Amino acid sequence: LAKTTQPISMDSYEGQEVNITCSHNNIATNDYITWYQQFPSQGPRFIIQGYKTKVTNEVASLFIPADRKSSTLSLPRVSLSDTAVYYCLVGGYSGNTPLVFGKGTRLSVIA
Amino acid sequence: DADVTQTPRNRITKTGKRIMLECSQTKGHDRMYWYRQDPGLGLRLIYYSFDVKDINKGEISDGYSVSRQAQAKFSLSLESAIPNQTALYFCATSPAPYNEQFFGPGTRLTVL
């Protein structure tokens, strides 16, 4: 499984765009990049998944450069309710090996 | 009703006791997982099961065992609980063959 590296913590003010970058230098050809969000005392929740270029949904955007060795989760105009831990996972979209959660990035949104 | 349920939600026990945490799902998923979470350490995989006849050890299986009683039920047991097993435990499911996981609400276990 590809190892991922992401910042331990980030702070942001309400209304700003937040970009969290994840490094995954040894990503394999058939690996997808998936991001989860976890609020305190709750289980993680799927946010977005992508393979290359850009993916956007109602919650976030995911930017993946051509070499796929990193990815950036973009949260537009964050609010206090976006305070959470964000996990970057890399692995097969389908396969027999579970994805591995690292320590994630703790995002604190300040009023 | 929640798709993935865990019982109990909170449990306090003593060192040496046998504890079982239960997970049930109504999503019809084949794959189920057990994780533990300690403060600042993210989630670590304990065991996973890709179908009723399949059980696999995860990153930190020592001191734990599991039983997949049916497609919908996956139980985690601590045969002899010790204080460093105090943690938040999550069950998750995913639909084969995909990896997107759906998590339960968690069980907070305290071993005194």
Describe this structure in words.
The complex is a heterodimer of chains A (111) and B (112). By secondary structure, chain A is an all-beta fold. Chain A is built from no helices and nine strands. The model of chain A has no long low-confidence stretch (mean pLDDT 91). Chain B is 0% helix and 55% strand. Chain B has strands at residues 4-7, 10-13, 19-25, 31-37, 43-51, 54-57, 65-70, 73-78, 87-94, 102-103, 107-111. In chain B, the strands form two sheets. In chain B, strands 2, 4, 5, 6, 9, 10 and 11 form a seven-stranded mixed β-sheet that branches. In chain B, strands 1-3-8-7 form a four-stranded antiparallel β-sheet, with no helix packed on it. In chain B, a hairpin with a 2-residue loop joins β5 (43-51) and β6. The model of chain B has no long low-confidence stretch (mean pLDDT 93). At the A-B interface, β3, β4 and β8 of A face β5, β9 and β10 of B.
On the 0 to 100 scale, the average pLDDT of chain A is 91
In whole angstroms, how far apart are the ends of chain B? 33 Å
Show unreliable segments of chain B. none
Strand content of chain B: over 45%
Number of helices of chain A: 0
Structural class of chain B: mainly beta
Q: Structural class of the helix and strand makeup of chain A?
A: mainly beta
Largest sheet of chain A, in brief, is: 5 strands, mixed
Model regions low in confidence, pLDDT < 50 over at least 5 residues of chain A: none
Strand order of the largest sheet of chain A: 1-9-8-3-4
Radius of gyration of chain A: 13 Å
Number of strands of chain A: 9
